[in-house]
């Protein structure tokens, strides 16, 4: 289990980066907005206890159980990766500039072309709109493709996004999971749904 960072560790984490969880030919590359200080201090994605990414991933059928952020590297075996639109850690996403989002979208595009995931799933509609210059984009599957990858937008799983409950987040993740199972882009590459032990 992840340990709670100290105030000093949180302060030291500002403007740092954390490594992507990334490999070629993944089923889904999940993309957060940017790491918070809690994630930066621990070097783990979606690490703050109130973040609902990990429960949503499980409820959506991507993992056989709820993973702890400390187990993030095990996602690669399930065909799942994690990155961010903007790599820089901040206390709040509203500290990021429009330019950071624009440049982040370019870096993300290059990453997707290089690593060739079947789907890119951006968790946060505002981040997607800013990074890709699509102010009218809506939740769900997008018309845009990046290379051969389909693009999907999911709700931000932050606990601050109270409009979405854990159950409704899980349901949105499940729709994407179904799309990964029915896609025929690379036959034979789709991993079977995980089974519970």
From TrEMBL:
Q: Pfam families of this UniProt entry? A: UDG (PF03167)
Tell me which InterPro entries the record gives. Answer: MUG/TDG, Uracil-DNA_glycosylase-like, Uracil-DNA_glycosylase-like_sf
All copies of domain Uracil-DNA glycosylase-like, residue ranges = 19-180
State the UniProt keywords alphabetically.
DNA damage, DNA repair, Glycosidase, Hydrolase
Q: What is its EC number?
A: 3.2.2.28
GO molecular function terms attached to this record: hydrolase activity, acting on glycosyl bonds
What protein is this chain from?
Answer: G/U mismatch-specific DNA glycosylase
Q: Which organism is it from?
A: Amycolatopsis samaneae
Gene that encodes it: mug
């Amino acid at each position: 289990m992840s340990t709670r960072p100290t105030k000093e560790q949180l302060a030291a984490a500002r403007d740092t980066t954390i490594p992507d969880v990334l490999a070629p030919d993944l089923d889904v590359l999940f993309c957060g907005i940017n790491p918070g200080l809690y994630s930066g201090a621990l070097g783990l994605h979606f690490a703050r206890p109130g973040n609902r990414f990990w429960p949503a991933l499980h409820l959506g059928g991507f993992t056989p159980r709820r993973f702890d952020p400390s187990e993030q590297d095990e996602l690669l075996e399930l065909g799942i990766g994690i990155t961010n639109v903007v790599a820089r850690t901040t206390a709040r996403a509203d500290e990021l500039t429009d330019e950071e989002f624009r440049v982040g979208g370019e870096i993300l595009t290059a990453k997707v072309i290089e690593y060739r995931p079947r789907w890119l799933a951006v968790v946060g509609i505002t981040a997607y709109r800013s990074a890709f210059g699509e102010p009218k984009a809506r939740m769900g599957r997008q018309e845009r493709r990046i290379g051969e990858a389909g693009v999907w937008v999911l709700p931000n799983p932050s606990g601050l996004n109270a409009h979405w409950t854990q159950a409704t987040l899980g349901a949105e993740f499940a729709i994407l999971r179904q799309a990964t199972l029915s896609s025929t882009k690379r036959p034979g590459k789709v991993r079977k749904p995980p089974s519970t032990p």
